[in-house]
Amino acid sequence: MDLTGFEEFVADRGHVLFRSAYALCGSQHDAEDLVQIALAKAAARWSWIEAAPEAYIRRIMYRDFVSAWRWRRRRPEVLAASPPELPEGGPGDSVVDRLVLTQALVQLPPRQRAVLVLRYLEDMSERQVAETLGCSPGTVASQASRALAKLRTSLSDDAHPTAVAPSAVSTSTGR
User: Fold this and answer.
1) Among 12, 20, 114, 146, which is least packed by CB within 10 angstroms?
2) Which CATH code fits 93-168?
């Protein structure tokens, strides 16, 4: 089996796949596992997918992430009774906002998180997301709507004084 093209693909696009996996998982280790599993599955079918491997590998990643088996196997972190105090003002605000947003994303159910990552991070249309996840465009729209509503609630100024304003999480994609 000739995997020369596969090795080149992983060297060129592996970091992009990892970025998407990290956005889904919220953990470096889980993201590495997700990418590794997807690449192992792709390597076995490399001769069939060599012409357009990235879409195939992304589909593997998103479906594996959303699957109930992976969700049941995953052990979420145990949260403290109250979060640590966040610093107010200063150059670290964007880092704090990003951490708060990441924490809010991790709290979403896997399918909703996958829809948001595909829709807004990967900039896919509802139709493309539906094809990737194997569901209808209506399901994508409803999952996105519910996920954004949960994010707005969890990122409200009352819940997190230095969090991203709820207006920063919008349903428009600029199209």
Assistant:
1) 12
2) 1.10.10.10
Residue 142 — φ and ψ, nearest 5°?
A: -70, -40
Q: What is the CATH number of domain 4-73?
A: 1.10.1740
For the stretch 142-167, pLDDT in tens is 999 999 999 988 888 545 444 444 44
Q: Which amino acid is at 95?
A: V
Closest by alpha carbon to 1, among 57, 56, 35, 48? 48
Read off the pLDDT of residues 9-35 as tens digits, 9 standing for 90 and up.
Answer: 999 999 999 999 998 888 899 899 999
Which residues make up the CATH 1.10.10.10 domain(s) of the chain?
93-168
The answer to pTM > 0.90 is no
